Amino acid sequence: MKKVIVSAKDTDFRLSETSKCQLKFKKSKTLLKIDSFIKYQEILGFGGAFTESACYNLFRVNEEVRNKALELYFDPEKGIGYTMGRVSIHGCDFSLSSYTYIEEGDSELKTFDISRDFNYVIPTILQAEKIAQSPIKLLGSPWTPPAFMKDNNSPIKGGHLLEKYAPAWANYYVKFIEKYREAGLTIWGITVQNEPAAVQRWDSCIFSAIEERDFVKNHLGPTIVNSSAKDVNILVWDHNRDVIVERVTPIFEDKEASQYVWGTGFHWYVSEAFENVGKVHELFPDKGLLFTEGCVEAGVQFNSWTTGERYATNMIGDLLNWCQGYLDWNLFLDNLGGPNHVNNVCDAPIIVDIFPEQLILESSYYYIGQISKFVKPGAYRIKIESNSEYLSTVAFINPNQEKVVVVLNKTDFEEDFNLENETYVSLPHSMMTIIL
Known about the structure:
The chain is an alpha/beta fold. The chain is 26% helix and 27% strand. Strand 1 (3-8) and strand 2 (16-17) form a beta hairpin.
């Protein structure tokens, strides 16, 4: 049975099932044609980041609102079906402050302790898993090694990992994985370094492509493989699309380094050069691709429809170029776009308005949900052809063999189209999901 689900500007449609977008007795010159026998990448899933700030915001409101917030993301029926998440390996800009898991100078990691994460982060993930009724696949990313391990002796403003501490830093990832697993959580993967080309006024560390390659080849890869974490996937880059090809090529062309690496993580800032993502697949078809971070910058953008369209444009563009899943940045921010200890405030799909203790759903929430709620882990992207110059489209086949067609209309006009002998109308500034 066909279903049509729509989110549209200037309407009441918000992930709403409707028959009003199906046209009877009309044929359209615009044709969409799917071929479910031509399959591309398998989909891992969708999710967002359990930053300390995001999780802390939930503990600033009552339990009913906290559970509702998690339900909106992780409940497969009442929410949008998230199955993945990202966590920072100790502090990041969206932690309440910079911190690490060890005492400064402890190169033997004897003081390694994740107890701070039990305040907000780990309880939130465990509650999300109860709501999802399944484990959440987590990606762990470090923003910086501890200060003493770096040549600038600081957690901020870049700096480089000192070679003499590379073995200790590689062991740090294993300790993190082991401790999170002891807490009952599922670490699916790690990235080597969040945004390794960015010198930030917050937690950051610089790796060139060669430095990242050599750290993986000589330290992180062997350490992971020879540990209890040998089943955890390693992702490189974890930064923007603009130079993704140049960054991963030296790593994947090195057989010793490449053997340890599942694939590439990437972000959306700076560039919408989706073809660069496809180029990485073309060059290295045996490697995975995962979107690991994106958000709308410069604070909360209340009542903005363009934020949702930005998400949709990026998700469709990347999925058409072999991306296997999508991890949004902060799951929840407050009405000021934080908290953020360096005032690097941003928007999030769900805003927690603290003092009224209520939730505000941005357009990005609905647009993400038009894909994440209906495209299940284990789905495959399938071929879709379109003769429309106005509509963006992508299609999938789920494990249960239902077909999912997603249609994005960023114009000010209605656009009708024909799909499998049925005619539909795409509303102005809308996203439509058709289940076949």
